[in-house]
Design goal:
Distance between the termini: 44 Å
Largest sheet: 5 strands, parallel
Keywords: DNA-binding
Organism: Micromonospora siamensis
Pfam family, one: Trans_reg_C
Protein name: Uroporphyrinogen-III synthase
GO molecular function: DNA binding; uroporphyrinogen-III synthase activity
CATH class of the largest domain: Alpha Beta
Number of domains: 3
Helix content: 40-55%
Length: 374
């Protein structure tokens, strides 16, 4: 693997995403998501934006556990499956697993998503309610309507604290016990994430997937002084695919249009991308051939033709104005900085060879090049 790019694999279920490059920012489930995308023909760039690490010092977790034993909570909010399992495993190590299950068994249990529900069931606890949107805001609103005055609410945190939700419950009269089980940390190797930022800024990927809101924030932090360039790419050529509305929130807040399934599941996210990306392609007819432009390839009369970035950039520029002559100077602006007019000629030559349809791109003497549409 080079720069986080997974080697191409033979699609097992289809080629709907053949010719597209998709960035994956997930860590824990990156291989699962990458495989789902590759099975549909995509080229995947792995770039974990964050990683989940257990608490190095479990003092806070142990104190929160003791607080739940001393005064069993009236309400338990289970945010994540990995967090609930980690909490109970830690309690097992302290010899407190059974007392903790007994204390939590008396609570009204809110599970924010399907994995949290599964962890609750596996622990032998009863699940009472889940939000349709899987959002913390909906959980807080539900509990406020139900009434929490004078009650103890234990909230299993999912990474960083969310003081706005804790304060909202406290204002409603609850005593909130925050249960920290893990925290978000930067990736062990930040190079793939910075490489993905380069690709997004250069509009050399077609989509980036996000499975958590902190991951979206982390990618924008990694962009640094290029944040606005990255946001502009997401508002234009690069699709932001989010597993759900909660994950999408940091991007939506910055004016980025996102694609997200109604149910926050990896399979549903992949189906959303499969539906969306092909709609964003450009199709033109030139020199008797039908060309559809994908991220790093052109489909010529139904056959995929992978292309390097420079020839692809030239083809995109020509396809935007079929039949119109573009000068070498104009085409030069589409190539990486430092290129000269000779690089344009080389890109055109590679484009013709890659398309295997040499008459598609026509040289107009002393003027430039055009797509031949006559």
């Amino acid at each position: 693997m080079t720069d986080g790019v997974r080697p191409a694999t033979q699609p097992a279920t289809g080629t709907e995403l053949a010719g597209f490059t998709i960035g994956v920012t997930a860590d824990r489930r990156r291989d699962e998501l990458a495989t789902l995308l590759e099975r549909r023909g995509a080229r995947v760039v792995l770039a974990p934006a964050l990683r989940i690490v257990p608490l190095a010092d479990d003092t806070d977790l142990r104190e929160a556990t003791r607080a739940c034993l001393d005064r069993p909570p009236d309400v338990l909010v289970a945010n994540t499956g990995i967090g609930m399992r980690g909490w109970l495993e830690a309690a097992e190590g302290w010899g407190l697993a059974e007392p903790l299950r007994g204390a939590l068994g008396q609570a009204y249990v809110v599970a924010r998503g399907s994995r949290a529900r599964a962890a609750i069931r596996a622990a032998g606890l009863r699940h009472h309610w889940s939000p349709a949107t899987e959002s913390s805001a909906e959980v807080v609103e539900h509990l406020r309507r139900r009434g929490v005055a004078g009650q103890v609410v234990a909230v299993q945190l999912h990474g960083d604290r969310q003081p706005e939700w804790t304060e909202a419950l406290q204002e409603a009269g609850a005593t909130v016990v925050e249960v920290p089980v893990y925290r978000w940390a930067p990736p062990a190797d930040p190079a793939p994430l910075h490489r993905l930022v380069d690709l997004v800024a250069g509009r050399l990927v077609d989509a980036v997937t996000f499975t958590s809101a902190p991951a979206a924030e982390a990618l924008l932090r990694a962009a640094g002084d290029r944040t606005e360039t990255v946001l502009a790419a997401f508002r234009g050529d690069v699709l932001a695919g989010c597993v759900g509305a909660v994950t999408a929130e940091p991007l939506v807040r910055r004016g980025v249009p996102v694609s997200a399934p109604s149910r926050a599941r990896l399979g549903a996210l992949v189906r959303t991308i499969v539906d969306e990306l092909p709609r964003r392609t450009t199709t033109v007819r030139a020199a008797g051939h039908l060309l559809t432009l994908r991220g790093h390839a052109a489909v010529v009369d139904g056959e995929l033709r992978p292309l390097a970035p420079a020839p692809m950039a030239v083809l995109r520029a020509l396809a935007r104005v079929p039949g119109k002559v573009l000068s070498r100077t104009t085409l030069l602006r589409t190539l990486p900085r430092g290129a000269d007019e000779h690089a344009v000629e080389m890109a055109v030559a590679r484009l013709r060879a890659g398309l295997r349809a040499p008459t598609v791109v026509q040289t107009v003497v002393k003027r430039g090049y055009r797509l031949r549409v006559d």
